[in-house]
Amino acid sequence: MTNDLSLPQRLERTEASANAAFVEARARLMPEVGAAWRDIDGTYAMFDGVGSPLTQSFGLGLFGEVTDNHLAVLETFFVERGAAPQHEMSVLAGNAALAPLAARGYRPIELSTVLVQPVVDAPRPALPRSLGVRVIGADEVDRWATTSAAAWGETPELAAFMLAFGRVAATASGCTAFLAEWDGEPIAAAAMNLHQGTALLAGAATIPAWRGRGAQAALLGARLRHAANVGCDVAMMVAEPGSTSQRNAERQGFRVVYNRIKWGK
């Protein structure tokens, strides 16, 4: 492991905490799912239902060594709930983490890139007069989730998933949901989770017919200003390596700090 893991640990804990809050919201809204999470020696294990993308662990290898015993305890959490064990692990966990994973039959199944930038209270950019961005009210969860789902309307199955996902995400502790509107009509949605001075930016999507009008830049600026106003000093995003999302983030000032590998059996 590298000597200074303070920033990666902070970032991984932010995402883990955001997902733990989502799982708690799921447990509150849909108790039949059996959603739950546990801190297992620094690694957060999440169960959000079989097949959910949140059913996995976060932080493996950054808060302690990856050992056969640690993996066995994590596996028990998932197997007892009928789910396949999956672990999101930063490459900064080091080469020593690979042998225990291989010995227990894990293989890499997904890559991601973590990006950050300092949070500053930047001036508001010039926006089209018709475009506005605001934080949603407590009674607008469905409006926000519907907008988010419509942004994925080109893939109906994904749109249906995002509608259900959004109705939970927007109610999770620490989540602030934003709408972009054109003359009052919702055209794009985004979210931000806050944890101990770090802002996790996620969920940004624009309805296809409204793309190219500056909604995403406006949502990014609004979230960064909000983060600055509540005392955050670091913003983070997660994207697929080399993706359009990563390139867009880098154009907005984000920089890659490390990559991750998701391991599954």
Characterization of this structure:
With about 260 residues, this protein is an alpha+beta fold. Helices cover about 35% and strands about 30% of the residues. The chain has seven helices and eleven strands. Strands 1-2-3-4-11-5-10-9-8-7-6 form an eleven-stranded mixed sheet, with helices on both faces. Helix 2 links the parallel strand 3 (about 55-60) and strand 4. Helix 4 (about 140-150) runs antiparallel to helix 5 (about 155-170). The longest helix has 24 residues, at about 5-30. The protein is globular. The mean pLDDT is about 95.
Topology:
Layout: H1 6-29, E1 36-40, E2 43-47, E3 57-58, H2 68-79, E4 86-90, H3 98-103, E5 107-118, E6 131-135, H4 141-150, H5 156-169, E7 175-182, E8 185-195, E9 198-206, H6 215-229, E10 234-239, H7 244-251, E11 255-264
Parallel strand pairs: 3-4, 9-10
Antiparallel strand pairs: 1-2, 2-3, 4-11, 5-10, 5-11, 6-7, 7-8, 8-9
Helix pairs in contact: 4-5
Give the termini separation. 24 Å
Structural class: alpha+beta
Element-level helix/strand string: HEEEHEHEEHHEEEHEHE
Using only C-alpha atoms, the radius of gyration works out to 19 Å
Strand line-up across the major sheet:
1-2-3-4-11-5-10-9-8-7-6
Q: Kindly state the mean pLDDT as a whole number?
A: 95
Fraction of residues in β-strands: 25-35%
- What is the count of DSSP helices, taking H or I runs of 4+ residues? 7
Largest sheet: 11 strands, mixed
Q: Can you give the helix content as a percent range? A: 25-40%
User: What form results from the Cα inertia axes?
Assistant: globular
Q: Pick out the low-confidence regions.
A: none
